[in-house]
Amino acid sequence: MAVKRSSETMAARHPEVQSATPGRSSTVGIRGYRIRDLAKAKERRREILTGAARAFAHGGYDATNMDQIARECGLAKGHIYHYFRSKEEIFTEIRVDAVSRALELLTAVAPLAADDPELALRKAISGVVARICDREERYEPLLPDPVSLSPENRKRIRTLGRRYERLFAEIVRSGIDQNIFVPGDAKLMTFIILRAAFTVANWYREGGKWKPSWIVEQVTEQLLRSVRQPGARP
């Protein structure tokens, strides 16, 4: 009876899920609940990842527990466990989700490099800085991967990160080959550009005198200037 009441309570508070019914075709979550509203469940999952990213950014991975994540998300800890099995799973999904979305954006930009590598690099850099200035996404790209992550999860994150860096380097290499960017090692130049862009998070303050759009524009131009070949069109 207690289990039944618990299931009924979960379904009442969170209508996107309900107890799975044998014999009915449905999508079942990790705790055995049938997901009635996939869009709502996806939105809730995203809210948890965003709140957890804030918690990890403020307290660090090792010092942050599930209670703190739940408070940051404004949810009961039990509801967090409906979507994720552990703190490590949450952290891994934050990193995987963040890099996947960044990779999707970069994939759309990269083909521009064939005709206009500077435009492609401008869009790539501005995309990085804009995410840091975004209230919902600013913490995700900056979370370091703790040594306590399992080898499998570290590999998932590392594989996506390397794909992103390779694609970014291809844009830089295209600009070098077309004599638009200064000669150099495209991989090293990529590391320098990305690390410089990420440092915006160290000093950006929401509501400060520098507006996000201005920061994106200025940082992007500064970094482009560092690789632009002298005499190349601005």
Brief digest:
This protein has 10 helices and 3 strands.
Chart the SSEs and their pairings.
Elements (H helix, E strand, L loop, with lengths): L1 H12 L3 E3 L7 E2 L4 E3 L2 H22 L6 H8 L3 H7 L3 H23 L7 H17 L17 H27 L8 H13 L1 H4 L8 H16 L7
Antiparallel strand pairs: 1-3, 2-3
Detailed description of the structure:
With 234 residues, the protein is mainly alpha-helical. It folds into 2 domains: 66 residues, Homeodomain-like (Arc Repressor Mutant, subunit A), CATH 1.10.10.60; 148 residues, Tetracycline Repressor, domain 2 (Orthogonal Bundle), CATH 1.10.357.10. It is 64% helix and 3% strand. The protein is built from 10 helices and 3 strands. It has a 3-stranded antiparallel beta sheet with strand order 1-3-2. β2 and β3 form a beta hairpin. The longest helix has 27 residues. The N terminus is likely disordered.
